[in-house]
Design goal:
Elements: H1 10-18, E1 36-44, E2 50-52, E3 55-56, H2 60-68, E4 70-73, E5 76-80, E6 85-90, E7 95-103, E8 106-111, E9 116-118, E10 125-129, E11 136-143, E12 146-150, H3 152-161, E13 163-165, E14 168-173, E15 176-182
Parallel strand pairs: 1-6, 7-12
Antiparallel strand pairs: 1-2, 2-3, 4-5, 5-6, 7-8, 8-9, 10-11, 11-12, 13-14, 14-15
């Protein structure tokens, strides 16, 4: 007789589907279109901490698994499996770019969930001004409509590597220029 573990639902189903991602690859979530099943009490906080029912998800492997089935739809962020679609809360962006390797015409970012992203035509760096603080709010495109907030220390590394062009700090990767912001008059 089948047990509930043979056909998991909710958080168990999400974890089971995420485990199907081969190696560190990403499952084809863009091909999955199940009905929306509701919300799950998962919050990705502004600092990148993943919370479930008010407690941190302490296992990095589990956070990595969930990150592989994360998608942003028109109605918000969801964890999606072939059979379920559950809304979650993301306070800022779902990922943090916590390291950068700077090479000749190459910028390779590592996210807090272990993704590596090489900036270029398919993975833009965008710097906006945070409306609350007036500070730069840099981000790098990861995949689909998912972005990583560039950590302050990583942004400082980019600024150190930048050159001044037309009054702007600019870094280059894969032949593309990314503006980090204006050169201060101070």
């Amino acid at each position: 007789m089948p047990t509930s573990s043979d056909n998991p639902t909710g958080l168990a189903a999400v974890a089971a589907a995420a485990k199907q991602a081969p190696g560190r690859g990403i499952p084809p979530v863009h091909l999955w279109h199940p009905e929306h099943c509701g919300d799950i009490d998962i919050v990705i906080q502004r600092d990148g901490l993943w919370m479930h029912e008010g407690s941190p998800i302490g296992r990095a492997e589990l956070v990595r698994l969930f990150s592989t089935i994360l998608r942003k739809d028109a109605d918000g962020y969801v964890l999606v499996t072939p059979g379920e679609k559950l809304s979650i809360t993301v306070e800022d962006l779902p990922f943090r770019a916590v390291a950068v390797e700077i090479g000749t015409d190459r910028l390779t970012f590592t996210t807090d969930v272990g993704d590596e992203v090489e900036a270029g035509p398919e993975h833009a760096i965008v710097v906006e001004t945070d409306p609350e603080t007036g500070e730069p709010a840099p981000r790098v495109h990861v995949r689909a409509d998912l972005w990583a907030r560039i950590a302050r220390s990583v942004f400082y590394e980019l600024v150190e590597a930048a050159e001044v062009e037309d009054g702007q700090w600019v870094v280059r990767a894969q032949g593309r220029a990314f503006v980090l912001g204006p050169v201060s008059a101070e």
